[in-house]
Amino acid sequence: MRNLNRKTFSRMALAGLGVAGALIFTPHAHAHHPFAAEYSRQHPVTLSGVVTKVAWTNPHIHLYMNVRSAESGKVSNWTVEMGAPHLLQRRGWRRNTLTTGTQITVDGFLARNGSSRINAQSVTLMGGVKLDAGSSQLDRNTDN
C-alpha cells in the first residue's frame, strides 16, 4: 500500500510539473507572431511624420508617429513595429537614434485589420540617412 501511494504521488507531482511548465511557457510561445499573421506584403505604404514616442521593448521595438493625411489634413497617430532591440542594436540603432519630435519617413507594410499600424522595413531620417528597421517581413514562408 505504501508503494502504491508513493507511485501515485510521484505521478501526480510529475503531471503537476508538466502543467505548470506548460502554463509558464505558453504565453511566450504565442507572444511572437509571423509577419503574415498581422501584416500584408500586398499593401506597402510610405508614411512621413513626427515621432511621438519610442518604446524599446521585447520582442519588438515600437515607435509612434503623427502622420498628416494628404487628403483630409487630419493628423493620426500610427504604431510602427520594428525588429527586436538586440537586432537593431547590431545594425547600428541606439536608444537615442530616434527621439520625440524627430521628422522621419517609414517604408513598411499595412496591418491586415485596417488599423493605423505598420511593420517597418526602413526608417529614413531628415538628413537622408536610411536605416534598416529589422522587419519581420523577411519570413519568406508565406505569400502574404
From TrEMBL:
Pfam families (alphabetical): DUF6152
Signal peptide coordinates: 1-31
UniProt KW keywords: Signal
Superkingdom, natural source: Bacteria
InterPro entries, per database record: DUF6152 (IPR046150)
Identification of the protein by name: OB-fold nucleic acid binding domain-containing protein
